[in-house]
UniProtKB/TrEMBL annotation:
Basic and acidic residues compositional bias, start-end: 150-182
Region (Disordered) residue spans: 120-190
Origin organism lineage: Bacteria, Bacillati, Actinomycetota, Actinomycetes, Mycobacteriales
Domain of life from the UniProt record: Bacteria
Name of this protein: Helix-turn-helix domain-containing protein
């Protein structure tokens, strides 16, 4: 209905955008309505998107010529009834060969259009005055059950609002708001230790980027068993490196299911083998090196490399000897 109103109000204004340079050509009201209905037939009735019929298909449905359909399409765009999301084009040679292998003889791709009501308050006001139905006088068809609207009887976006321009709010899908408020989603309890491990893992700079697609609570159910065995973030990252290096499996930079990927890696490590932390030896070596460096820094009788110094010259002794830092411990 809004498409018809927009045609009557603004056709004389936008007609130069449809005609040629000599002012020839135009679109009648009947042809315009036929093209709008035909394009709306191929669109998603909930939002008006995905309408991509070919011109030959519209010719077979409406019985109009190719030039009239093209002018009507330009008129829809000029009136604000359609937006061209992706422009059609001819297929390349490789695309035609690939299409012919699946018995598709088409030589081009049709344009993709999104249909929507015109964003014009004058059209909306006139529709409210011309609409004989009072507000809330008609019960909508249910979307489920034996009395649901059939697919071929559903409304199109050209007849009803589907966006923010609609002044009337849609009815809630549930019959009672009290039931919706009373029903609470049941969340599964998560282990706080697993949440802490997941948070530390996500804050680790060595963690892969795909891990940040889920929150710490999202990773917690999977990391409950490792957290119970005192795993740290370095163990998870080392396990991923071991899995990639030992098995030779390729890990995508952006996997489709990150949680399933890590679950498979943990399964490869073994549920009964969680006591064997992947980074335990590396962390022990790092702790030993840090303790050795700290002892060298606190000792005044050895060089920066841990060799004993000669008290008289202040240089390393000959032959060199490793400092035991015992005097520092007794002090």
């Amino acid at each position: 209905m809004k498409a018809d109103i927009a045609y009557q109000l603004h056709y004389r204004t936008v007609r130069p955008l449809v005609c040629d340079v000599h002012g020839r050509g135009g679109v009648s009201r009947k042809a315009f309505r036929a093209v709008c209905a035909a394009r709306a037939h191929f669109a998603d009735w909930t939002n008006g998107r995905g309408s991509r019929p070919a011109v030959a298909t519209l010719q077979a449905i409406t019985g109009l010529s190719k030039a009239v359909i093209q002018r009507a399409t330009r008129l829809m765009r000029a009136l604000g009834l359609a937006t061209e999301i992706m422009r059609g084009r001819q297929r390349t040679y490789r695309e035609r060969m690939a299409s012919w292998r699946v018995r598709d003889k088409g030589r081009g791709w049709a344009s993709v259009w999104a249909l929507h009501p015109p964003r014009n308050p004058q059209v909306n006001q006139l529709k409210e005055r011309l609409d004989p139905r009072p507000n809330k006088s008609v019960t909508p068809h249910p979307r489920r059950g034996p009395f649901r609207a059939l697919s071929h009887e559903r409304f199109h976006s050209l007849e009803h609002d589907t966006g923010s321009a609609c002044e009337e709010k849609r009815r809630a899908p549930r019959d009672s708001t009290d039931e919706r408020a009373g029903s609470k989603r049941k969340h599964r309890a998560v282990d706080p230790q697993a949440v802490k491990l997941a948070a530390h893992w996500l804050s680790d700079p060595q963690t892969p980027r795909w891990a940040h697609r889920h929150s710490a609570k999202g990773w917690a159910p999977l990391l409950t068993a490792p957290a119970a065995h005192n795993w740290v973030s370095a163990d998870i990252n080392q396990l991923i490196r071991d899995y990639r290096g030992i098995t030779g499996h390729w890990i995508a930079t952006d996997p489709h299911h990150p949680i399933k990927l890590l679950a498979g890696i943990l399964k490869w490590h073994g549920k009964d083998n969680l006591d064997d932390r992947p980074a335990a030896a590396i962390l022990a070596q790092e702790a030993e090196a840090a303790a050795r460096r700290r002892a060298i820094n606190e000792c005044d009788r050895c060089s920066e490399y841990g060799w004993e110094l000669d008290p008289t010259s202040g240089l390393e002794r000959e032959p060199v000897a490793r400092c035991s830092h015992i005097h520092h411990i007794h002090a």
